[in-house]
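hey
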């Protein structure tokens, strides 16, 4: 696990450090509505933000793998972080503030806990 990179992504999402990039767990990168800020043009999920902040993959299919590699995650951690329970039905319920909390908790404990992140 790469704690430094995990915290760098949390900081980037929290401070909106990538101009014109919103947050939405609905896709790696796409044009559409940002779940947190309304219309913003381009939005990305945690994997997309990770790739934007730490290095781009060669194609969209590789975002999840590249992001997981950047963060030093094992298969289970990648699955839980990038496709949390409830993701397929309602990706918009996962807000940027939740992503920041889950990333910071992951850096501290090595555990992906969306329920805790969303309860705070």
């Amino acid at each position: 696990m790469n704690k430094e990179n995990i915290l760098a992504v949390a900081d980037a999402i929290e401070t909106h450090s990538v101009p014109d990039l919103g947050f939405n767990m609905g896709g790696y990168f796409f044009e559409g509505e940002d779940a947190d800020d309304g219309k913003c043009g381009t939005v990305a999920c945690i994997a997309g933000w990770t790739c934007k902040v730490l290095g781009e993959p060669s194609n969209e299919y590789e975002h999840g793998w590249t992001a997981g590699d950047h963060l030093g995650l094992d298969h289970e951690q990648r699955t839980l972080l990038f496709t949390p329970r409830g993701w397929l039905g309602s990706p918009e319920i996962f807000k940027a503030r939740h992503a920041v909390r889950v990333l910071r908790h992951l850096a501290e404990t090595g555990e992906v806990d969306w329920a805790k992140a969303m309860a705070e």
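The radius of gyration is 13 Å. The chain is about 50% helix and 15% strand.
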